[in-house]
Amino acid sequence: MTDSEIIVRPVTSRADREAFFALPAALFSDDPVWVPPLQMMMRDQLNPKKNPWFTHGEAQLFLAERRGAVLGRISAQVDHSHLEHHKDGTGFFGFFDSVNEQPVADALFAAASAWLKDKGLTRVRGPFNLNINEESGLLVEGFESPPRVAMTHALPYYQTLVETAGFEKVRDLLAFLTPMDTALPLKHMKILQRSIDRNPGLTFRHLDPKNYDQDIRILVDLFNAAWAENWGFIPLTEADAKHMASEFKLILIPELVWFAFYENEPAAMAVALPDLNEMIRDLGGRLWPTGWAKLAWRVLTRRTWASGTRVPLMGVAPRFKNKPLGSVLALVVMGAIRRESLKLNMPICEMSWVLEDNTQTRHSLETIGGQVYKTYRMYDKSL
């Protein structure tokens, strides 16, 4: 067979979309730690009628085929929020999966790049599914353990395919595995308590389901303020946040979402999600006909419940950045999540992701026993 037999074409029909969604199951069939994502969530993520990302972004999906057999897939996307915020002419690629053949990967990247270039963009970066506030990065270390909720997975050869196609590393994103029953050193506990005692204006609470919309607004404002100077930051819209919360509403636990206030003003927040992937691993990505009942029974009875959580969102208001009180706020909200996680018998937490050059956060996580166990790489390339 020759490279000329490889055809890359845009996804245009329902059958094409089904082939796009089905490919990972074929590629990862021999991977013992891969978790088939829920097909309903995959479809909703790429449905402009259901995902508010499409109010500020546009995407094109592609399939690579040889003689009718699907060999790979990729998306190309423009996020207008990113362009407005960074003004850097950068488009994204995502949903990259391929057989271990460099010509297939090259053809996929060429198609995605050409689409972005036609949009007037000058650089392509990824992988993002669909932007930095969703699933980000290519797994390059940590293949031996399953991905946590809303994190990506990959086959080891993907890294070679991407790099041989001319992409270069731009950042690594780190995932820390942290035992929630690790106690802070006694001296830290005493300092923490003294700091709280000296600041009577500090108050703390978890998410209030009766004031859900108000709390989502607080969470969005804190996230956008706290992360504004981070590499690749894109403001999280309230619609985006509500969509994420809706996606995980079945497993969202109010006691695992904590806020800190200083003199009644929002000061810090942290969000932990039970690991949905643990609960759906044996469902094959399908909720019909019996998956719904199995998942609902596990959630309601806490049987085959997640043994761990993932903290995807955490932030401290900028006015406390690099100040002792800022560290106190972060430790208290995370301490509350740790306490509630242990009550729920979920002793392990993945804190992800953390930029490799965020030394302050890395040090804080290492102080409480966190260790890097997965690395996700971001790549870019000039068009």
Q: What is the CATH homology-level superfamily of the largest domain?
A: Gcn5-related N-acetyltransferase (GNAT)
| Portion in beta strands | 25-35%
- SS summary, helix count: 12
Gyration radius from CA atoms, angstroms: 21 Å
Give the SSE map.
Layout: E1 6-10, H1 14-27, H2 39-45, E2 57-66, E3 69-79, H3 80-86, E4 90-98, H4 102-118, E5 123-126, E6 128-129, E7 135-136, E8 138-141, H5 158-164, E9 168-179, H6 186-197, E10 202-206, H7 212-226, H8 238-247, E11 257-262, E12 265-274, H9 276-280, H10 291-301, E13 308-316, H11 324-343, E14 348-355, H12 359-367, E15 371-382
Parallel strand pairs: 4-5, 13-14
Antiparallel strand pairs: 1-2, 2-3, 3-4, 5-15, 6-7, 8-15, 9-14, 9-15, 10-11, 11-12, 12-13
Question: Notable features of this structure?
Answer:
383 residues; alpha+beta; Aminopeptidase; 2 domains; 13-stranded mixed sheet; two-stranded antiparallel ribbon; 15 strands; 28% strand
